[in-house]
Design brief:
single chain, alpha+beta, Jelly Rolls, Arc Repressor Mutant, subunit A, 7-stranded mixed beta sheet, 4-stranded antiparallel beta sheet, 13 strands, 39% helix, cNMP-bd_dom, transcription regulation
Length: 248
């Protein structure tokens, strides 16, 4: 997509609804999620902008657009993706409530190198560059921290590109457990989300067929149990040992 003035939701501007004043509790941070802040910081950020609601599948912004706004997710979920020259997409992260997206392009004025689309109905606050620059030092430092965090996410994706499919899936499961795992009294852990195989595959650059095959192998090995779209890790210590071996 060529660079130019925003033609999507940002071109229309945010709705004039009152600014949000509260954000749900922050979720645990995973490299595949844009890191949420504490409730107080999220509320301060939300107070800088104006809120609007997005339907499922609606773009918050598109790759290649220019904008002087960034966004804070108050409720719902947003998928961050890269549109490749060959027409394919690579999902890079998901923004949960309390997360912000699009900060870098807002500050440097360059075209957005990623797109953002909601995966469920969402409430999102748009914050202008001028509002941010007029904020106190604490919030400016927080935005700097978030931009640095996202550099680490991109580094993780570069690492993943060089790994075999099995190791990509192991690393992904390890991160999802840290973010969404509901640990039982034993070593069993169930994910609180029910991701589709396609969604998991896109996060680590695999095809649906390859992701399904690798999950089936982990089921046969007794590490994972599948109940429809639900995923249960049957041996959490064993999974963590495998994650450590990948990153070592």
């Amino acid at each position: 997509m060529t660079a130019g003035a925003a033609s999507g939701p940002e071109a229309r501007g945010a709705a004039s609804a009152p600014a949000a004043t509260s954000v749900p509790d922050a979720a645990p941070v995973s490299p595949f999620l844009t890191g949420p802040a504490d409730d107080r910081t999220a509320a301060l950020l939300a107070g800088l902008g104006t809120s609007r609601r997005y339907a499922r599948g609606e773009h918050v912004y598109r790759q290649g657009e220019r904008s002087t706004r960034f966004h804070l997710v108050v409720s719902g979920r947003v998928r961050i993706y890269l549109h490749r020259p060959d027409g394919t997409e690579r999902s890079l992260a998901y923004a949960e409530p309390g997360s912000s997206i699009g900060e870098a392009a807002c500050l440097d004025g360059r075209p957005r190198h990623l797109g953002a689309v909601t995966t469920q109905p969402s409430e999102i606050v748009a914050i202008t560059r001028d509002a941010l620059l007029g904020a106190d030092r604490e919030l400016l430092l927080e935005i700097t921290r978030r931009i640095a965090y996202k550099q680490r996410v991109m580094q993780l994706h570069v690492l993943i590109e060089g790994l075999p499919a099995r190791e990509r899936v192991i690393l992904l499961l390890g991160q999802l457990v840290e973010a969404y795992g509901e640990v039982a009294l034993d070593t069993t852990t169930r994910l609180s989300i029910r991701p589709a195989v396609d969604e998991l595959a896109l996060l680590v650059g695999l095809t649906r067929v390859t992701m399904s095959r690798e999950l089936s192998r982990l089921v046969a090995e007794g590490l994972v149990q599948k109940e429809g779209r639900s995923i249960v890790v049957r041996d959490l210590p064993a999974l963590r040992r495998r994650v450590h071996a990948v990153l070592a």
